[in-house]
Amino acid sequence: MSGDTRSTALEFRSSADDAWYSVRLITEEDGEVLRVKYVDFPHDIFDERFRAADFGDWKATEGLAERFRSVSVQLQDEDCPKVTQGKAFCLSRSIEPNDLKFYDAVVDELKQPQEE
C-alpha cells in the first residue's frame, strides 16, 4: 500500500448500502487517487477509490464530501431524557448475525412509558 495514510476519526456513507462506517483515507498514485479504506473490514475489496480526474466540477466534489462526517457519538442510557422530537441521531441495526449497520435517523414521535 503506497501513499499517505490519514488516521482521522471519520465515518463514510457507503455507496453499497448507504450505511455509515469508520474509515481511513489513503492517497495513492501520487495523490491522484483517494482510497476510502473501511476500518475492521477483512478484505480490501470493500474499499472505495476515487480518481481526481473523475471530478469534473465542484458539485461532484461536494457530493463526495457530503458522504464524510466525524465519528458519531453513541447515545448513552443517561442521555435518553435529552431526546426530543426532531432530534437526529445515528442508530444501529443488525441485518444478519455479525453484520451491524449504522444509519441516520430522526425522532418522529416520543412515547412516554406507562407507569405501573
From TrEMBL:
Residues making up the signal peptide according to the UniProt record: none
Gene Ontology MF term list: chromatin binding
Domain SAWADEE: start-end pairs: 8-112
Pfam families reported for this sequence: SAWADEE
Family annotation (InterPro entries): SAWADEE_dom
Record-given protein name: SAWADEE domain-containing protein
Organism listed in the record: Cinnamomum micranthum f. kanehirae
Organism lineage: Eukaryota, Viridiplantae, Streptophyta, Embryophyta, Tracheophyta
